[in-house]
Each structure stands twice: as C-alpha cells, then as structure tokens.
Specification:
- The protein has 2 domains: 1-32; 33-68.
- It is 88% helix and 0% strand.
- It has 2 helices and no strands.
- It has helices at residues 2-30, 35-65.
- The chain is rod-shaped, with a radius of gyration of 29 Å.
- This is DUF2933 domain-containing protein.
Length: 68
C-alpha cells in the first residue's frame, strides 16, 4: 500500500502534463485563421511592398537626374 502512495504522484505528473498539452493544442487550433484569409493578407502585403519599392525607385531616379 505504501508503494502505491509513492507511485501515484509519479503517474499523475505525466498524465497532468499530457492533459495540459492537449488543452493548449486544442485552443491553438480553434483560434487559427482560415488559410484563404492568410493568403489574401500575404497578397496584400506583397502589393504594398511592390508599391513601396516602386516609389523608392522613382525617388532614386529623380535624385540622380537632378544636377548636383
């Protein structure tokens, strides 16, 4: 009987740890956004980057064309 009292905490630790991991994974999966929404956000960000690069390139060409 004494052996059972010592073994109980040793068995409880991995079981509680497994339950916590399961609950954490479950909450992450429920909060994920849809892949289509992620793809649209990526497209929007890439368009913004291209617009900024174009603006930067036009500024660089106007600086080089103006007399010093």
């Amino acid at each position: 009987m004494d052996g059972l009292l010592y073994a109980l905490p040793l068995l409880a630790c991995p079981l509680v740890m497994g339950a916590m991991m399961w609950f954490m994974m479950r909450s992450k999966h429920g909060a994920q956004t849809a892949p289509a929404a992620d793809r649209q956000e990526l497209i929007r960000l890439r368009k913004g980057i291209e617009a900024l690069r174009g603006e930067l390139a036009s500024r660089d060409t106007t600086r080089h064309d103006s007399p010093a």
